[in-house]
Design brief:
The protein is of the alpha+beta class and 219 residues long. The chain has 5 helices and 12 strands. The chain starts with 5 loop residues before the first strand and ends in a 6-residue tail after the last strand.
């Protein structure tokens, strides 16, 4: 693979203990009692070297070919980083009361988009760990490259799929990409526009993206 290639991958991700924390195979998830009905299990579309996956996976992909499988380990520096003691902080109990939250140990909380996990709760002092739960851990991956996406319309669809937009009609007219889909948040439109103009390989450079929103009448 090369930096900038659009591909689809399957993987099984484990901790050193063998515990699975992420995977894309539905049947295997059910076999391992790791199935989550809220998750869509399927190959993931990514752009190699585009920051869609952790650095250790991107580096492994550069030495792989279509159809190849590889088993390897990723150290924290190329995974989710080392744990930072400064990210374990004391949060006053009144903050939780204001949001009607019972701060029991293990609870995942969200402070203005920053997620943390409650470590302990006593005497009005709540210790919250804002480190990524996988920080400081060595990860083991079983990685498979499924296919390479060559057509520019397919590349646009892959970016939409990565962000959970499956039912969209994509057309490329010269320098303009037209996407017909359900209404999307403005933040997502801006992100998709940035990725499409940066990564999609069309006959001429893509300079703009037109979003055509489809509203369905209520029954």
């Amino acid at each position: 693979m090369n930096v900038g290639d659009f591909i689809r991958i399957n993987y099984i991700a484990r901790l050193e203990s063998g515990e699975i924390f992420d995977l894309t195979y539905e049947d295997f998830a059910k076999q391992q009692n790791a199935y989550n009905p809220k998750v869509i299990y399927r190959p993931i579309p990514i752009v190699v070297g585009g920051g869609f996956v952790i650095k250790g996976i991107d580096n492994a992909l550069l030495a792989m070919n279509i159809g190849e499988k590889k088993v390897f380990s990723i150290n924290p520096e190329e995974g989710f980083g080392q744990r930072d003691p400064k990210l374990v902080r004391v949060v006053p109990k009144r903050v939780f009361k204001e949001h009607n939250i019972d701060p029991r140990p293990g609870l995942v909380v969200d402070f203005s988009g920053v997620k943390g996990r409650v470590q302990s709760a006593s005497a009005g002092r709540i210790m919250v760990d804002f480190n990524n739960p996988l920080a400081g851990k060595v990860l083991k991956y079983e990685l498979e490259v499924i296919e390479k996406i060559e057509q520019p319309e397919g590349q646009v669809s892959a970016l939409l799929e990565f962000y959970g937009v499956d039912k969209a009609d994509v057309k490329i007219n010269g320098e303009v990409v037209e996407i017909e889909s359900v209404p999307l948040p403005m933040e997502l439109k801006n992100r998709l526009t940035q990725l499409i103009t940066q990564h999609v390989k069309a006959n001429v450079p893509i300079k703009s993206v037109k979003f055509i929103e489809v509203f369905k009448a209520p029954p």
